[in-house]
Amino acid sequence: MSTARAYPNIALIKYWGKADEELMLPAAGSLSLTLDTFATTTTVTLVPEADDDSLELNGAEATPEQVRRVTRLLDIVREWSGSTAHARVVTRNEAPTGAGLASSASGFAALATAAADAYGLDLSARDLSRLARRGSGSATRSIFPGLAMWHAGDDESSCAEDVSGPDFRMIIVFVDESHKSVTSREAMRRTAATSPFHSAWVESTAQSLDLALQACADDDFTRLGQLTESNALRMHAVIQSAEPPIRYLTARSIAVFDAVERLREDGLEAYATADAGPNVVVISRPADADAVAERLGDLGRVAVVGPGPGAALISEE
Ligand code: 2P0
Predict the structure, then answer these.
(1) 45, 152, 235, 303: which is deepest, by most CB within 10 A?
(2) CA dihedral 58, 61, 67, 69 (to 10 degrees)
(3) If you measure from the C-alpha of residue 37 to the centroid of ligand 1, how many angstroms do you get, rounded to a whole number?
């Protein structure tokens, strides 16, 4: 029985589109911050006498589709370890599931870490990241603490690594905590298959990633913030250009982007981003975070979060 804890991450340069769906290789690299809040804690117990894997998610038995996704990851662990045993997986998310806060990232990072240990594998962080990738692309990055970059590459090389860069905070503005209508996976597929702008998005993301890594190396928060906001708007533009179109940002999300522009005009430096949902994440320098949160508090519930730890085994509670 092994228990692991992992945290979600929010991308500054986004992953949106796969080069290989079976191996879960992204069309371009990405860069994110692993958070210090909204953990997922997952326990994997081998049950050699069981006929199938089973999954408890937030206190309830999971749906067959959720179990299949877990089994697909456990099948890889069984292949790597030579075991045929099935497992009982019990997992709890502290974040609202499906609200665009990427609980699949913390979920599959925690699952990969706990499962590798339960099946007796002693994997490097790099190999845990490759394993987590097979469950959910963004989970690749949650294996690592703080800033992490996920390489595009092939099955061997497509994993995340640590990046040093400026210290900053994220102010999450929850404008709508209901479930999103189209899953990221389905929306990515539709974007790649139907958007006339998809290849331009992939090309521009690769360029923005190089510039963002340079901004990190230069400890340049301003440049990193500008690249973050522009990459998010480009991602939502390409998503909207799918057929039929998908729009994740609502009028309330746009109001947050507008408010962030006004903060900058007032000399409070902040930049906005958003994932596959209506909630907006604003980045600021650590010293400005409380002021930014206060100024955005009228637009939704806010949470100030910072850089957090990579996925790790914990002693059973
Ligand atoms: C990201 N997102 O880079 C981007 C930005 C959402 C918007 O990664 O199909 O759950 O499991 O690989 O990782 C969300 O998609 O998709 C995501 P799969 P995932 O964080």
Answers:
(1) 235
(2) -20
(3) 18
